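Posted in: Protein Modeling Q&A

I'm a second-year student putting together a small comparison for a lab meeting, and my supervisor asked me to include a predicted structure for Cytoskeleton protein RodZ-like C-terminal domain-containing protein. I've never done this before, so apologies if this is the wrong subforum. The sequence is pasted below exactly as I got it from our records. If anyone can share the structure token output, I'd also love a short note on what stands out.
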Amino acid sequence: MKGNKEDQPTTSTDNRSEMSEKVGEILQRTRIAQKLTLDEVSRQTRIPVRHLEAIEEGSSKGLPATTYSAGFVKTYANLLGLDGVALAARFRQTMGEATKQQPIIEPYAPTDPARVPPWRLIVPCVIAGVIIIGGGILWNNHHSTPSVPYAQNLSTVTDSSNVNDNSNINAETENSAIAAVENQAIYSPSMTNTFLANATDATIENTPKAAVNLVALKPVWLRVYDGKSGPVLFEKTLNTGDHFEIPATAKDPLLRTNHPEALTVMVATRNLPPSILPSKKVKDFSLKPDSLLTAAPISPSSQAGSSN
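Accepted answer (user: helix_wrangler)
Welcome! Here is the predicted structure, written out as tokens:
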């Protein structure tokens, strides 16, 4: 009995010493006592050496999640003949407290430069966009039918005829005058005959045979082009009495205008009837002499009248 009483203080002291030791220190001490190396333990337990070293050092760096790490401790302890369940629980508790004490700091992730388009890509895109928009505007202006020149020339005629009476006319009065000129029949048949006679005597007298001329009865905008996709031969506003002769080199002259009623077509010295042109907007209207004469043949009486 006396011997047993002497043994009790030694056992309690060993238990307190064992409890104060860390799990890694217990495993390391036992392994060294059994003269085992980490490589031998790794071969028997299939636990990587780096994980065994981290467990013995009590470091969580390089270890997997606590659940897996506790499993490693249990296997390691069982190999050494220790209580694997108890050591694994102590290890799990120790690692949990260490995790709580260490705040998790999430590093600031700066903006990835690869996600920001470089300037060498942005600048060409901007230039290409400007070129495309500018080209579209130019193409639209070239192929659209302008209506401003006709109104502008009408306003010019009105202003020149009334310059003494309306020298200080404002914008609203000018627009009203333009509308009034468009709605009134200011060109009488006698005026038309005078324009044709002047054009025939002064400018078309020496015109080669079968030459086509367009004579303006009033200010009118028109475009003449050689074929649908060919070059533009003429594009402007003809004033009253002006004419345009189709070049002899034109292979397929075509006409486009908003006011065909303001034009008279002449082949050589003969003027064709007004019905040769549509009453409304025309586009791709052929101005070939053969086509014009076929569409509106000239009667002998009209030829004689034009010659007189």
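A couple of things worth pointing out for your meeting: Residues 119-143 form the longest helix (25 residues). The chain has two domains: 2-101, 189-307.
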